[in-house]
Each structure stands twice: as C-alpha cells, then as structure tokens.
Amino acid sequence: MKRILLAAALLAGGALxxxxxxxxxxxxxxxxxxxxxQDTHCNASRxxxxxxxxxxxYVIVITYSDKAIVIVMxxxxxxxxxxxxxxxxxxxxxxxxxxxxxxWEVMDKTTVRxxxxxxxxxxxxxxxxxxxxxxxxxxxxxxxxxxxxxxxEALAALKFCEENRK
Length: 166
Prior knowledge:
Helices cover 22% and strands 45% of the residues. With 166 residues, the protein is of the alpha+beta class. It has a ten-stranded antiparallel beta sheet, with helices on both faces. The longest helix has 15 residues, at 2-16. The chain is globular. 33% of the residues are buried.
C-alpha cells in the first residue's frame, strides 16, 4: 500500500512538481498530508483496502495550486490499456455533482489523473464529501466510488501545508 501511495504522490506531484523525499508530513485520520522536498506543492493522500471488493486497493491523492486542482485515483480493479488515453467521466460526491464529462488521463493500468482549473467550489464540495465518484462515459464497469472520510479536515490540513510550505 505504501508503494501505491508513493506512486500516486509522484503522479500528482508530477503535474505540479516532482521528487520523492519528504520535507513536511502530517496525518489527519488515515490521510497523509505531505510536501516532498522537490515538490512545489503539498499532497493529501489516502489509501485503503475494500473488503467488500475482493480486498482491492483504493488510493486518492489531491494537490492544488492557485491555478489547478489535481486528483489522482488508483484502483487495482482497473485494467486500462492505453497510457495517455483521455477518458471522460462525471465527477460527484455523495451529495453533489462536481462536473460532467471531466477529462481523466490514464497514467498506467490502474491509475487515472484529472487536472482541473482551480475552482473554490470544487474544493468546497470535496471538503463536505464522504465519497467521490467517477462515472465513466459508456463504461459502468470501470466507474468507481472512493471513500474519502474526513476530507474536510484533510483539505484544511492541505491548505495549511500549502500556506506554510518550505
């Protein structure tokens, strides 16, 4: 699981910076908030196994700047074929739609990354959510619901990290 979290952090950081060494790190529940020495921005990441889904790994990494929000989702039940392929999915939470037909890039067979123009309303919706869903166009089999408990606290810690990054 730690290997998956590191890979996800590298993918998220790759959109806004890159590097594996941790300069700052804190925990909020089972979320890890960190800024690696060679990253420009902080990441919030959470990984878990779902016993109701063959004990598969689920990982989410969120990072942002004043220009972009980057979300990386890893699910070991996915088997994407084409790295670089652009998929479209409706994005929502347990109680709100965030955006329709959002673009997600396939990073490897189990990973997608969405890079979105920064919008505070997206952050607000994520902070109130308990679940984040991706509903892929014409592909119900690969649609996913990821658990993101304490997202509000994690995003507040991420904001603090961003405001105090070294």
